[in-house]
Amino acid sequence: MDLKNYLGQRAALVDKALDALLPAEDTLPATLHKAMRYSVFAGGKRIRPILALAACEAVGGNPQQALPVACALEMIHTYSLIHDDLPAMDDDDFRRGRPTSHKVFGEASAILAGDALLTQAFVLLSSPATCEQIPAHTTLQILHTIARCSGSMGMVGGQVVDMESEGKQVDFPVLEYIHTRKTGALLLASIQCGGLVGAADDGAMAALTAYGEAAGLAFQIADDILDIVGEQTELGKDVGSDLARGKVTYPALLGLPAARERAQELKEIAVRALAPLGAAAEPLKAIARHIVDRSS
Amino acid sequence: MDLKNYLGQRAALVDKALDALLPAEDTLPATLHKAMRYSVFAGGKRIRPILALAACEAVGGNPQQALPVACALEMIHTYSLIHDDLPAMDDDDFRRGRPTSHKVFGEASAILAGDALLTQAFVLLSSPATCEQIPAHTTLQILHTIARCSGSMGMVGGQVVDMESEGKQVDFPVLEYIHTRKTGALLLASIQCGGLVGAADDGAMAALTAYGEAAGLAFQIADDILDIVGEQTELGKDVGSDLARGKVTYPALLGLPAARERAQELKEIAVRALAPLGAAAEPLKAIARHIVDRSS
Question: Which domains does chain B have, with CATH numbers?
Answer without folding.
Answer: 3-293 (1.10.600.10)
